[in-house]
Amino acid sequence: MKRLLALPLAVVLGLSLAVPAQASVEHWPRGVFPTLSRNLVAYYDFEHPVKGQPAQEADQGRSGTTINLVNGGAAMRVRDGVSSRNSLQVKQVNPTAKGTDDWKAGLYTPGGQPTLKAFNGAKEATIMGWVKMTGENPSPNPGSSTPGARYGAVGLVGLLSGNSDGHAVRALLELINVDGKLHLVALGRRVDGAASQTFAATEDWQKLLPLNEWVFLAATFDYDNGTMALYRNGEPVDGFYVDKGDPWAVAGEPEPDLASATNPLGIKIGGSFPQNTREGNPCNCRMDDLMFLDRAARPWEVRLQYLWARL
Q: Distance of CA 271 to CAs 52, 60, 100, 155, 227, Å?
């Protein structure tokens, strides 16, 4: 209740109209703006290790999707949280040698993760959370034969597709090389194995994600309309669609256009391949309050979530 009282009066009045009468403040996850709670499939604040399993993080959303803290275990929880004590540290461990020791998080379930069934045939989705760059990005690529080569992407947060190898996604927040330049992007794939679409921020990624500064990012995906949006600190980010065609094949009948009727194979955080079979696109960064919703958050909700976490 203290969080409600601390909000501006206009926000509280709007909240009273947006939240169902039967809702109870005590049932909302502390770090989540109340109107988002009903669609909160998975939420990780890195304050909830699984009992007896410190290398696992319990889901505070409705799905109960436990994720693994890969390679670093409990040491990946660091005292640098946004709305709580801890955040998650991910990083490249050895920039000079090819291996499987990078710190990353997530889970991978061959055949599909049943707890993520809300995204099976979904019409919309949202990924949001806090990111703080803590080191060199993009990372050196020790698997390349080219001297000085770096990865072409920096992995942030993604929901895997229903036939993913640990890299392919249904919804993704990431830094990706577009026409020779790194951009902050939302990347989505409606149909498993089919083409993806990328919405890339126009502004330089280093201005959007400066070193050692917490930044709130959100990406929304509307599979039916074939649209995506990016937000930074609660405000829309100008950008452009990389594919000018119809990669999601949403034009024409039948309607509505939904994501593939398959359960996602998991979640990836801080790089690809959460099953840890190989390294790919590591991020030297910290993350907190990561949320996966089965609808597209409205612009005003993204703004209020940003303010809510900072109270």
A: 26, 22, 12, 4, 24
CA pair distance 69, 77, nearest whole angstrom: 9
Tens digit of pLDDT per residue, the chain (311 long)? 445 545 554 454 455 444 444 444 445 788 899 999 999 999 999 999 999 999 999 999 999 999 999 999 999 999 999 988 999 999 999 999 999 999 999 999 999 999 999 999 999 999 999 999 999 999 999 999 899 999 999 999 999 999 999 999 999 999 999 999 999 999 999 999 999 999 999 999 999 999 999 999 999 999 999 999 999 999 999 999 999 999 999 999 999 999 999 999 999 999 999 999 999 999 999 999 999 999 999 999 999 999 998 88
Total number of residues shown for the chain: 311
Which tokens in the block code for residue 260? Answer: 């593939």
Residue 279 half-sphere exposure, CB side, CA atoms within 13 Å? 27
Where are the extended beta strands (E) located within the chain? Answer: 40-44, 49-50, 53-57, 67-70, 77-78, 87-90, 104-108, 124-133, 153-160, 169-178, 181-188, 197-201, 214-222, 227-232, 235-236, 239-241, 266-269, 285-293
DSSP letter for each residue of 107-149: EE-TT--GGGGGGTT-SEEEEEEEEEE-S-SSPB-TT-SSTT-
